[in-house]
Amino acid sequence: MGNQAIRRASSYLSLGIGTLAVLFALPAASGNESSNVIYHLFVRSFCDSDEAAPAMSRGDLDGITSRLDSYLNDGNDATNHDLGVGLLWLMPIFPSDSYHGYNVRNYVDINPDYGTLVDFDELIAAAKARGVRIILDLPINHTSNNHPWFLKAVSGDEEMKKRYFFREGNQPLTPGWHSTTQDNSSLQYFGLFDTSMPDLNFDDPSVRNDVRAIAKFWLDRGVAGFRLDAAKHVYGDTFGPLAEAQTANNNLWWLEFSNYCYSIRPDAILMGEVLGQEGEMRSHTLGLEGLLDAQFMHGVREHVELPTAGFVGRVKSQLEKARQINDTAAHAPNRPFEYYPFIGSHDENPRLASKLDKLKADGGLLASVDEAYRLALYMLLTMGDKPVLYNGEELMQRGWKWDGSGDGSRIYDETLREPFPWYKSGEGPGQTRWFAPRYDGPDDGVSVEEQNGAEGMLSLVRGLIGYRTKHQALTDGEFGEILSDTEDWMVFERIGGDDSLLVMINPTAVGKDYLFHDGWFPQYANALVQFWSDGQQKLWQDDSNAGSSIAGKVFVPPYGLVLLKKP
Asked: What's the pLDDT at 182?
């Protein structure tokens, strides 16, 4: 043990934060049924169960099933090797014309690249046995231009044409409009996102009926809910701000759809994707009881770059405002509105680690990349009931969008969705190879194998998820008092049932004492230390079973986190 480590141990011991065991940061137990962390998973990239064709290995459903016990969640609190995530959000798994799956040809079958409905049922059963739920990404704003509905429509079926938006083909092609032919005559159709993605017309009753039937098919099969792709575009025909009537129609549809899903599964999870400014997101909280929180993502990325005052207060206030609107809608059952926080996704450019790399190279980041990344994870895993972790974020996986036009490769978003790196060498059982990575390589420090040590980001994620699982204040809680919300401190309560925790985040390079006294939250003066993390030393410890308490003050390490519990 070096002198610096001894001094560090002395600092903790003098403040009553634990024993010498803190130096070794042993992983905490994983969670099962009570884990609400959502793992956002691109099936094609994750794990391949078929080693017969290693040159073209693609992830599949059986690959996910095979990694439940070894990586995702084995359902056993006594083990510490798995992430302990409680929900798997699978990006589209339906038959599709694209690698990403967002232009769907058949909503009630499985992409043959990924397996079969039998494979899916086996995944549902295996996940359920371990307390893990499955959420499907459901892109119903549009279909594939090879979906049977659209093919019948362009063949002249007038009833099917009502399901889409068509016009005569002798008009200028304004944004979103595309050309096709019908009986050798020119015809135009609307598809906001792409020529291969014609928008559905939700004013047509048959569309609504069939979309409800699609949801029922999967809910009856055991799916826990859906991520609702492009939720604001069901009636929105622009990437810009929507007209009031469009927003109103979106809300009416999503309220109808939500209540239908709840009639089948009252605890269904519905996460809407609504991109835009805070006001535009909030305007869609009437029809939906859950939205992915893009504002949180942008805020976290800004805060770890340059901490500013008021972040926690803004997160709390935005949730309160959204709930005031949502409470006026006739949801059945009426549950509290939820934001689903995240710090990266399959669309966000770049991945967080790459953004921090660029900031550091340009001189715009005071912390190290590793330190800033840990701060982002603290915020993600302590500020929301159901945080979303994009696969690879636990490993600091890199990625930027690619300029496929500039180099002729026609590669664009693939580089945000590269194969999940299992091995230091880049080779091994289950490793996918569907796409030659531009950002991941052998021996780059970014793989499960390389991040598996005590100082790895993977270890911290496992530890925090394991701790979360044991505390209702984090898995089903609310913000309480905000003690400090400055560029130097984020200190706030999380309260759930009888469980109350104080979250303390130090976003600076200097470890500091935080004092409690008669005039400042004396109820925490003798609080029990639950968990701590030192971002500089890359160490953490779950001390929730140690029974150690503070004496009027607590030391919060640099780029660190401490969780306290009232005595």
From this structure: 81
